[in-house]
Amino acid sequence: MKIVVCIKQVPGTTNVSIDPETKRLIREGVEIVMNPFDAYALEEGVLLCEKHGGEVTALSMGPKRAELTLREALAYGADRVILLNDRALGGSDTFATSYALSQAIRKIGDVDLVICGKQAIDGDTAQVGPGIAAHLGWPQAAYVSRLIKSDDSGLTVERMHEAGNDICIIKLPAVLTVLKDINTPRMPALKRRLASGKAEIPVWSASFIKADTAKTGLDGSPTRVVTTRKPAARDKHTVILNGSAAGSASELVKILKSRIKL
Ligand SMILES: Cc1cc2nc3c(=O)[nH]c(=O)nc-3n(C[C@H](O)[C@H](O)[C@H](O)COP(=O)(O)OP(=O)(O)OC[C@H]3O[C@@H](n4cnc5c(N)ncnc54)[C@H](O)[C@@H]3O)c2cc1C
């Protein structure tokens, strides 16, 4: 099986600020980590290749320092990694990001399965996985919690949604986005971690993947971030009710009533 796992590098902290000019997250000087959901996507790819043979390519679109995240992907089991890096891709929204990633997947060629994490913990849109499937014209299953059956022609998966679970039979090639329920990522072997530090990281440009730059970057993004603002910190004060259950209950009712603005 030829599997591509999409890996995003994200701020390793919630203490981030937004550039008032560009309205974009200030990433300089902020610790970066692999998007937590993508570790589960990577593990699922490695498990499938252990079962069916084949290779896992970890693909990331981002600034040069996303190489660190790709070295981690090598340590966790990826056979190959590719960094998609080009100024023409900077500031891409989810439509432009999924377009560029789909062009890179076409360039890799003969891919059977693309696995993404459910969502990225910074943009939080969960749109890139389904976006890649749309650009490639492939079937997709999002929020996959269990891979029930797999062979070269297709997969049977369980996916979660608000109203419960679905069992989906999906023909390959396809795109999945996965939840943390799907597996338990392994700890990287020391030998792999040491080797990942020396590995050559291929860097692909927009022209190398034949991406139409009118569809990438800020200019190619239909989404415009118009304003960004930090939500006002809520005035949180905690009340500890120590009395008897009945006493505390009536105390709680009094407090709640006092807060309801009629
Ligand atoms: C605070 C904030 C709000 C934003 N709001 C929007 C918005 O409303 N609309 C919009 O279009 N854009 C938005 N963006 C931009 C958006 O974050 C980027 O387009 C981003 O590249 C992809 O979207 P996401 O982070 O929501 O990823 P998601 O769609 O949540 O990511 C899902 C999965 O896709 C894969 N993936 C995502 N990005 C990459 C990547 N760069 N390389 C490899 N794999 C990847 C990973 O497997 C990831 O688990 C926002 C960015 C920020 C920081």
3D structure, described in words:
This protein has 262 residues and is α/β, with parallel strands linked by helices. It has one domain (2-215): 3-Layer(aba) Sandwich (Rossmann fold). The protein is 28% helix and 24% strand. The strands form two sheets. A nine-stranded mixed sheet has the order 9-8-7-10-6-1-4-5-11, with helices on both faces. The chain has a two-stranded antiparallel ribbon with strand order 2-3. Bound molecules: flavin-adenine dinucleotide. Flavin-adenine dinucleotide (FAD) binds at residues 6-8, 25, 35, 37-38, 41, 60-62, 92-94, 97, 101, 116-117, 119-120, 122-129, 223.
Write the layout of secondary structure elements.
Elements: E1 2-6, E2 9-11, E3 32-34, H1 36-52, E4 55-61, H2 67-75, E5 80-84, H3 94-108, E6 113-117, H4 128-136, E7 140-151, E8 154-161, E9 164-171, E10 174-178, H5 190-198, E11 203-204, H6 245-259
Parallel strand pairs: 1-4, 1-6, 4-5, 5-11, 6-10, 7-10
Antiparallel strand pairs: 2-3, 7-8, 8-9
Helix pairs in contact: 2-5, 3-4
The protein binds flavin-adenine dinucleotide.
State the gist of this model.
The protein has 262 residues and is α/β, with parallel strands linked by helices. It is 28% helix and 24% strand.
Calculate Rg over CA atoms: 22 Å
Q: Which percent range describes the beta-strand content?
A: 15-25%
Are there runs of 5+ residues with pLDDT below 50, and where?
none
Shape: globular
Helix content: 25-40%
Strand order of the largest sheet: 9-8-7-10-6-1-4-5-11
The distinct ligands, each listed once, are:
flavin-adenine dinucleotide
Report how far apart the termini are. Answer: 61 Å
Count of discrete domains: 1
The DSSP helix count reads 6
The residue-averaged pLDDT reads 92
Instruction: Tell me the structural class.
Output: alpha/beta
